[in-house]
Design brief:
CATH architecture of the largest domain in chain A: Orthogonal Bundle
Structural class of chain A: mainly alpha
Oligomer: heterodimer
Number of strands of chain A: 0
Largest interface: A-B, 85 and 62 residues
Largest sheet of chain B: 12 strands, mixed
Largest sheet of chain A: none
Helix content of chain A: over 70%
Distance between the termini of chain A: 34 Å
Number of helices of chain B: 10
Structural class of chain B: alpha+beta
Strand content of chain A: under 5%
Order of helices and strands of chain B: HHHHHHEEEEEEHEEEEEEHHHEEEE
Shape of chain B: flat
């Protein structure tokens, strides 16, 4: 039986640190994707994800409805992403030209080299935020549609409509390149 | 996502090679987010604070004076102006964060309840492609209302009045104009999503500690202790995924002797633009007697009165607002965001009609009134969201006049679907 997020959150509040590890296992991939949307860099996305979960742990007692852990966490990730972008802009202003960006990891490079993946990633970055998030949720969360739609505050049918729209857009982008699955 | 859900979507694609290869490429692409997961998990668990987070007490904070005043009103102006009174009220709430542990919470509540008025300086800086700066004085009285004097760089200043009774008024003394805003219908308090009172309500519910303590420093000759609050603490996690007008983090500096804030800094950004802003509140004067006359604009000889009325928030307003936007701009907006839409339409209409940029031109008044239907239409859409009617807007994909494309749709109370097409024709379907 799958333990709900709500039960895990209550577990964390009762001092069960393993419950928080389980929450991390469930949601870290999605949060990395959300952070990647802000940074366009996997290394930074991984770092920001750690920050997101640290803030979540510190602030978990703020969460009024434990069942809404996932949307709450996504909200933190979006805020952390915004703060990161702001800090980057400030840094660029003060030390223009000196900034060293982390190099893409081997996995990142490999995935960029794979046909279609880079095109997809580019296409995804141009999607409206809601559609991008719907796609992330669909591919990265191990949960049913009922929970997934809750993150986007959509009806079940609305969630699938958004997904269908996303996939139409991505298909158009992919149709421009030859892909070898 | 479980297997059956994948099947639900797969049937859309499995029959086509394009669908299959897209699905495969997406799976491959998302694999990168698995990278180093176990190591990162172990690192995070090792980095967690040793202390177990404690469930926050479910205190209900009421603030019958200043807080109630703000919470019972729906502001109709955009975030920059609105944020200042919001932030001002918020800062009093930030007094919560001065103490740790077994804070006598009731004492803080009592203290907040005792606040009758505050006056402070507000300096706003907008950074981005169109930078600007403004400085103003904010008067906030539980009894009399709000007054905000603003002086902007390179532009004439104006004063915003919201008395405790009566309509909001904006007066520009230099241009000798007075804009009075009334509403054709009673605003729905639930529509306060993007207004300061919603922020304040969230802020007042916070019972947690600040994200970070900033230590002590001298400010204006006083010893102050600083606290930082993330946007998350301010309720950002609940903001809508689209059209968010403002996100923020804040720093509060509290005079250690009086235990009242002496500086409050808010950082934020504005959706649909690259603009970022910071607002600094300082030079606070707490509970200083304020003259009731300050909250009512005095008449000025030769003043031009632009009285406008916000139309009711109805489906008709939504259609009229979208029609006005499409006729003026030539396309539908990508997001239904009232401030952005009215700004663009207003600017275009003023240029097109050759109106002198003086609000004293009668044509200017007509245009001002005309664009308010956009506000009403956007409010209608937000109301649908609040009522769980699942509205969806497709403006980014729809051209004006397209009779086949769905522009907006939502669920009616009887479960049927209301559709507004690209040619602004409506239809109800099962």
């Amino acid at each position: 039986m799958i333990v709900s997020d709500s039960t895990l959150v209550n577990g964390v509040l009762s001092g069960d640190r393993e419950a928080f590890a389980e929450l991390y296992n469930r949601h870290a991939r999605l949060i990395r994707a959300v952070c990647y949307d802000a940074t366009h860099n996997l290394t930074w996305a991984a770092d920001l994800t750690q920050e997101v979960f640290l803030r979540a742990f510190r602030g978990i007692s703020d969460l009024r409805d434990p069942a809404r852990f996932a949307p709450w966490l996504v909200g933190i990730a979006r805020q952390v992403g915004r703060e990161w972008r702001r800090a980057q802009r400030r840094q660029r202003r003060t030390i223009a030209g000196l900034q060293q960006e982390p190099q893409p990891t081997a996995v990142e490079e490999a995935s960029r080299d794979a046909d279609g993946v880079h095109v997809l990633r580019e296409a995804i970055t141009r999607l409206p935020e809601k559609e991008r998030l719907a796609l992330h949720v669909f591919y990265l969360l191990q949960m049913d549609a009922e929970q997934a739609r809750g993150i986007l505050e959509l009806s079940r049918s609305g969630f699938y409509r958004v997904l269908s729209r996303v996939r139409r857009r991505l298909r158009r982008a992919l149709s421009k390149v030859e892909v070898h699955p | 996502m479980n297997g059956s859900d994948h099947e639900q979507l797969d049937w859309l694609d499995a029959a086509t090679p394009a669908g299959r290869r897209e699905h495969a490429a997406l799976i491959r692409m998302y694999e990168v987010f698995d990278q180093d997961h176990d190591r990162l998990c172990a690192e995070l668990m090792a980095a967690l604070p040793a202390e177990t987070p404690r469930r926050a007490p479910q205190a209900t904070l009421t603030w019958p004076k200043i807080g109630e005043f703000v919470m019972n009103r729906v502001f109709t102006r955009r975030g920059i102006t609105l944020l200042a009174p919001a932030a001002c009220v918020a800062l009093a709430a930030a007094v919560f964060f001065m103490r740790e542990g077994n804070l006598a919470f009731a004492d803080v509540v009592q203290r907040l309840n005792a606040v009758e008025s505050v006056v402070c300086r507000v300096r706003t800086s907008i950074m981005g492609s169109a930078p600007s700066q403004s400085e103003g004085t904010l008067y906030f009285s539980a009894k009399h209302g709000v007054r905000y004097d603003i002086r902007s760089e390179g532009a004439s200043g104006f004063t915003f009045y919201r008395p405790s009774e009566g309509p909001a008024v904006v007066v520009n003394p230099e241009m000798k104009t007075r804009i009075t805003m009334t509403r054709a219908d009673t605003p729905d308090p639930a529509l306060a999503h993007k207004t300061p009172d919603e922020w304040i309500r969230r802020l007042l519910r916070m019972t947690d500690e600040p994200d970070r303590r900033l230590g002590r420093q001298r400010i204006d000759g006083r010893v102050a202790e600083g606290f930082e609050l993330s946007g998350t603490k301010l309720g950002q996690q609940d903001s809508r995924l689209e059209g968010t007008s403002f996100a923020s983090s804040a720093q509060v500096w509290v005079d250690v002797e009086t235990e009242l804030p002496i500086r409050f800094v808010v950082h934020g950004s504005i959706a649909e633009s690259d603009a970022e802003l910071s607002i600094v509140h300082d030079q606070f004067r707490w509970d200083e007697p304020v003259d009731a006359a300050k909250f009512h604009p005095p008449p000025v000889d030769g003043e031009f009165d632009v009285s406008v009325r916000i139309p009711p928030s109805t489906e008709e307003a939504l259609i009229a607002g979208l029609r006005l936007y499409a006729d003026t701009v030539g396309e539908y907006p990508s997001v239904l965001e009232a401030a952005t839409m009215t700004g663009r339409v207003m600017g275009t209409l003023v240029v097109k009609s050759g109106v002198a940029r003086s609000p004293q031109d009668p044509e200017f008044k007509r245009i001002t009134q005309e664009v308010l239907v956009i506000h009403a239409g956007c409010e209608f859409y937000r109301k649908l969201e609040r009522e769980g009617r699942q509205p969806e807007y497709f403006g980014v994909d729809v051209k004006p006049g397209d009779a086949a494309a769905t522009l907006v749709r939502w669920t009616l109370e009887n479960g049927r679907t209301r559709i507004l097409f690209g040619d602004l024709r409506t239809e109800t379907r099962n």
